């Protein structure tokens, strides 16, 4: 809920504040650009202003601007606010005006902080809280209401952030994703199957500032058009968070290799397939200046993902393999998929055939895996990656 007449959004970031002056400035600039891009993509009126430790969005659409801010990686929270003079009288008047319009019964509290130079004001945060609380109380009573204060768990909190030049009044702090602005880290290739886990892994990398390069390996007879459409659809959802990042999907044709592995290998088939996919991703990384390859895997979630098997797949490539979900439980990954909006597309039935054997290897030995997999597996991976089709997203 925002105060009546709110025309500015306070945007808070977190870890950026721990950086050196130079890094902080460049990250804040990136955050401002990313937020501007998201506002423009959503057709939300708003201009972003950067100040030390904060961004501000000037907007006549405060709810939509808060929505964009809280979808921007790097943002910890956002509040739609009204501004007043930084005097005790003006703040109390402003709080009373908000109370008249927004208090709807229950309990309230006033929470105040002064930012910047404390000596700029001749009153303390406690003064704002006590005088502001009295002003809110009087306004509610005058309107025929029944005010009650609860400082621990109020139904409505009147927040005041008093700065040297201006005081901001707001009613809530909407949580953002946190993390770092996208583009402040080097790109990473993500093997995006479109299942529940890999879009979440991609989102987590975006959240930590990495632009991602999605790669989908077409499984031929073991995949199909719906399987591919599912991957593209999850990429489109991811792209809606970062409209200024190119999330075109590299679609690599792995059909012939998958068929061969299914024909020739039994228990170790999935390991060879994972090693092939990693090699496809590594080749794309090489060609796109990405620093590594990420997957949606988590320790022990599937037979191909036991800690022993993950070790065997990693050594297929020279570049780092990132697994943002590594220690996450499936329930938590699924919950996040729901929250970020990829779950629905990820669970569309694709009717694809099962590649996995009925008795898969769970404790693979690297020598045994190497011995059985085709000699030209990695050569084929590179060739498939080089021929990958770059599919622009439908947005
Ligand atoms: N067809 C594919 N194209 C690209 N990457 C894939 C593909 N299949 C699997 N992967 C990668 O390998 C990881 C493990 O594969 P797994 O078989 O568990 O995937 P899934 O269950 O189909 O999808 P997800 O792991 O996304 O839920 C995936 O998280 C993904 O990173």
TrEMBL record:
**UniProt-annotated location(s):** Cytoplasm
**What is a single molecular function from GO for this protein?**
tRNA binding
Q: Residue limits of the THUMP domain?
A: 63-173
Q: Name the major location.
A: cytoplasm
Q: Look up keyword Transferase and say if it applies.
A: yes
Question: Catalytic activity annotated for this protein?
Answer: [ThiI sulfur-carrier protein]-S-sulfanyl-L-cysteine + a uridine in tRNA + 2 reduced [2Fe-2S]-[ferredoxin] + ATP + H(+) = [ThiI sulfur-carrier protein]-L-cysteine + a 4-thiouridine in tRNA + 2 oxidized [2Fe-2S]-[ferredoxin] + AMP + diphosphate; [ThiS sulfur-carrier protein]-C-terminal Gly-Gly-AMP + S-sulfanyl-L-cysteinyl-[cysteine desulfurase] + AH2 = [ThiS sulfur-carrier protein]-C-terminal-Gly-aminoethanethioate + L-cysteinyl-[cysteine desulfurase] + A + AMP + 2 H(+)
- Ranges for domain Rhodanese come to 186-228
Q: Which SUPFAM superfamilies match?
A: Adenine nucleotide alpha hydrolases-like, THUMP domain-like
Q: What is its EC number?
A: 2.8.1.4
> At which positions is ATP bound?
191-192, 274, 296, 305
> Which pathway, metabolic or otherwise, does it act in?
Cofactor biosynthesis; thiamine diphosphate biosynthesis
Which InterPro entries does its entry note?
Rhodanese-like_dom, Rossmann-like_a/b/a_fold, ThiI_AANH, ThiI_fer, THUMP_dom, THUMP_ThiI, tRNA_STrfase, tRNA_sulfurtransferase_ThiI
GO biological process: one example: thiazole biosynthetic process
Q: Name one GO cellular component term.
A: cytosol
Quote the function comment for this protein. Catalyzes the ATP-dependent transfer of a sulfur to tRNA to produce 4-thiouridine in position 8 of tRNAs, which functions as a near-UV photosensor. Also catalyzes the transfer of sulfur to the sulfur carrier protein ThiS, forming ThiS-thiocarboxylate. This is a step in the synthesis of thiazole, in the thiamine biosynthesis pathway. The sulfur is donated as persulfide by IscS.
Which keywords belong to this entry?
Answer: ATP-binding, Cytoplasm, Disulfide bond, Nucleotide-binding, Redox-active center, RNA-binding, Thiamine biosynthesis, Transferase, tRNA-binding
In the UniProt record, what gene is named as encoding this protein?
thiI
Q: What class of enzyme is it?
A: transferase
Which PROSITE patterns does this entry report, sorted A to Z? Answer: RHODANESE_3, THUMP
Q: What is this protein called?
A: tRNA sulfurtransferase
- Specify the domain of life of the species encoding this protein: Archaea
Similarity comment: Belongs to the ThiI family.
